[in-house]
Amino acid sequence: MNKGIPFWEQHIEKMVFGLAALVLLGVLAVVALDLDAVTADIDNRVLGPAEVDEVMVAKARELSRKLQPDADAEVEQFASVSGGGGDAYRQRLAGRTSPETSPPLIAPSLAAVLLPAEVGSADVWYYEPIIPEPRIQPMVMQTIDTIQQSELERVPALSSMLDGGSRDIIWTTPVASIDLAAIRKELSGQDSMTDPMRSQIPSNWYNRRPYFVDIVFERQAMGRDGKWGAAALVEPVPGMLSFRAEIAELVANSGLDAGFRQQVWQTLDDKVRQLEVMQPDFYATVNDSFAEPALFDDRAASSESDIEDVSDEEAARRQQQREIERRLRDRVNSAKRVESTLEELGGAIRQDEIDDSKGGSSGGAGKGGGRGGGKSDPNGDPGFGSSGQGKKGSAASASDQRRRLNLTLKLDRLKAEILRLQSEFEALNPAAAAAMAGLDDESIQIIDVATDDEMLVWTHDLSVEPGVSYRYRCRVLLYNPLFARSRQLLEAQQGLATAFTIGSLTSDWSAPIEIKPPVEFYVVRATEDGGSMGLGEIRIEMYRYFDGSRRSEQFTVQPGEQIGRSATVSENGSSTTVDFSTDWYLVDVVADPAAVGGSGLDRNEDSTVVCRRLDGSEVKLRVPSRQIADPGRVRLKMDVRDAQSS
Fold it and tell me: Does the bond joining 116 to the residue before it have cis omega, within 30 degrees of 0?
């Protein structure tokens, strides 16, 4: 026996075995004592372990008996089953199997087979075109000119828009471009991904082309608080072709019908008439100052880089050259447009040809032949909407005859102006004149909305006020292909057949434009210690558009005095009193230590000038050396020179 091993190490196995036996005996005792706690729930009865086997055996024997072929069926057990599920099933059987948005067949299927696709069907949903928004041109054109007296006699409503009996007028021309290809695509669109599918509108419902019924421009005016006011519609140009007032009257009297649609179609099928709505020409004016907008051309874009780092005299010469080039391009583009319009109308015509044709047929109109028997023009001309065709499909009505005569005279004036500008441009820059010589080689084809991809649209806003800033946005109104087609539409789309037009999305706003007053002034000399009291003195060069021409005068002004006054101006051997008054006065003349002079001035004559409005709402700083080279002054000086030479 090894006495070095402890007792518990010698008997550890026996101890573990004994402990395990005690635990096992304890578990068995607990199970035996708590046997009644193990139960089963069968047929709503709680059964102990001793009863489960007996019940399960009885259930098995009962089930075996019921499965025998000669067993009796116990149908009374089904009486307690709820019938709600059966009712729901029967309702589903009687219900629709197609989506709720699917239209029911409401026309015989045989008719859909026999009728051509152009007639349409009341069994389908038609695609609803979404006309894309025009792209507003940022810069708004501003023009001043004098209306010819003959236009006031032709359009009496125009007189009420002129100020104080004068025929001088300032107007703006907001411009936008429209995507004709995208519009035509929308009109012929369809959508097979919707439920139900949106089918293509029959092409003869809109005569396979877009009809532009109205070009709607809205404007906002900026208040004195610097905030934009409410948007207001720009009214159609008086005397120009417009359906806006007529449609509004017909809608009020429920008179819109298929007959009016046909009248509009016949009118707008004529490309010249369509352009009268989309690109209205301006009235006959003394100077033909309005230049038709053109799509942006990189070749015509001017850069200011060519007048940097040159003398003031050279900068002024280049500024004058650029202005002549701009005017030359404008006159050439205008002449091309006039020539294209005259070609559509039947060619140029002169008064002696009209007089010679008066003894001929009642519908005669000189070279272009004639047509008659049509509906009445909104302005009283008899050839409006008639179906007969003259040269290139344009009506030889009294209206067209008058327009041809006016356009012929305008073209003559433009050609004479082009020759004069070409001579001036060649004198300033013979090398550049050679490149400009071919400017009028290419002819301009009149826009056709049925085939061209893009075009400009515009209007003329005659109600602008000098000194006020405006901005414009645009949308177009097209003839609605679903108009008066309610019998061929599903009930869900019949509401679309009531509107005569569908509108495009609305463009963004243009950049603001401040309307220039008739009188503009430039400081051409300023000395700090000049004047009768040594408080300073400036020399002001004033320009005013008056009675058809630009007039100019110079005044000396001292601090505290109002800028401008009435003066007698001599022009072409006659004298005219012109009011050059402004709502500005001279506040102060301050010498600038950094002034270097230039443009024929020494540094003492190039002081900074502080001017302020009489109501105190605005202050301006002007520096003579910069004013002399200002592009606006160059344009005004050319206007004065042209007026004196005419």
Answer: no
Higher pLDDT, 641 or 580: 580
- 564 burial type by CB count under 10 A (0-12 exposed, 13-18 middle, 19+ buried): buried
**pLDDT reported for residue 99:** 57
DSSP class of residue 148? -
Distance (Å, whole) CA 37 – CA 478 = 88
Extract the runs of DSSP E, i.e. beta strands, from 515-565.
519-527, 537-546, 549-557
Name the domain count of the chain: 4
Global confidence as pTM: 0.70
Angstrom distances, CA of residue 65 to CA of 68, 72, 117, 142, 640: 5, 10, 72, 106, 124
Domain limits at 386? 312-446
What tokens does 322 get? 């650029």
User: Cα–Cα–Cα angle for 601, 605, 607, nearest 5°?
Assistant: 125
Q: Is residue 548 part of a domain?
A: yes
How far is the C-alpha of 282 from the C-alpha of 407, rounded, in Å? 11
Q: Which of 446, 472, 500 is a domain's end point?
A: 446
The C-alpha atoms of residue 249 and residue 264 are separated, in whole angstroms, by: 15
Does residue 44 lie in a domain region? yes
What are the tokens at 78? 């089904």
Average pLDDT over residues 196-210: 92
From 25, 47, 64, give the residue that closes a domain. 64
Q: Which two tokens stand for residue 315?
A: 């900068």
Higher confidence at residue 75 or residue 555? 555
SS3 track for 98-123: CCCCCCCCCCCHHHHHHCCHHHCCCC
Spell out the long-range contacts of 229-235 with Cβ–Cβ below 8 A and sequence spacing 24 or more. Answer: 231/473, 234/174, 234/459, 234/461, 234/472, 235/463
User: Would you say residue 589 lies in a domain?
Assistant: yes
